[in-house]
Amino acid sequence: MINGIFETHINVLNFEESSDFYKKLPGISPLYKDEGRKSTFFWVGGEGKGMLGIRENYPSKDVQRQHFAISVDLDNLKKTAIEVKKLGISISNFFEDNSGELYVFPFMPAVSFYFKDPNGHSVEYISMLDDKPLPDKPIMKWSEWEKLNDRLPRDIF
């Protein structure tokens, strides 16, 4: 019956600046802009798949850092990272060590990269892996995960 989370909203300091930021990201396209409410809505992953809303100073003038993840096919993770970097956005791994190595969350399992929007919100592009979940394993480098699954490591950065 349930298909997933369809919509999320974040509070921003300047909806024009944030609108310009989000409309450039891979997999995100403008849907509706409400100047009166200082809000912009975006399709995420294609029309009718999911929605992101941003609103200036709502529910308050204080912006609390939020986090959300955008799903991307594993085959497109590297391409997506390249597209984000071409926008002049610095990307990092889960530990923000900028080593160029991504990390896997074995309990899922999934691999991802992160960056911040103009308000400090944490945005993640995440890819589910086809492997069996290993919830007893700690978060590990993607290269370690690939070796654990008898594959050659992949290059992302």
Protein model, in words:
This protein has 157 residues and is α+β, with helices and mostly antiparallel strands. Helices cover 18% and strands 31% of the residues. The protein contains 3 helices and 9 strands; from the N terminus they run E-H-E-E-E-E-H-E-E-E-E-H. The strands form 2 sheets. A 5-stranded mixed beta sheet has the order 5-8-7-6-9. Strand 7 and strand 8 (122-128) form a beta hairpin. The longest helix is centred in the middle third of the chain and has 13 residues, at 74-86. The relative contact order is 0.17.
What is the topology?
Blueprint (H helix, E strand, L loop, with lengths): L6 E6 L2 H8 L5 E7 L4 E6 L6 E6 L10 E5 L2 H13 L16 E3 L4 E7 L5 E7 L11 E2 H7 L9
Parallel strand pairs: 1-4, 5-8
Antiparallel strand pairs: 2-3, 3-4, 6-7, 6-9, 7-8
Largest sheet: 5 strands, mixed
Task: Determine the fraction of residues in helical runs and give it as a percent range.
Answer: 10-25%
Task: Compute the separation of the termini in Å.
Answer: 38 Å
Structure summary, number of beta strands: 9
Biggest sheet strand order reads 5-8-7-6-9
Compute the average pLDDT: 94
Structural class: alpha+beta
- Low-pLDDT stretches are none
Coarse shape: elongated
Strand % is 25-35%
Order of helical and strand elements:
EHEEEEHEEEEH
Task: Give me the Rg, rounded.
Answer: 17 Å
The number of helical elements comes to 3
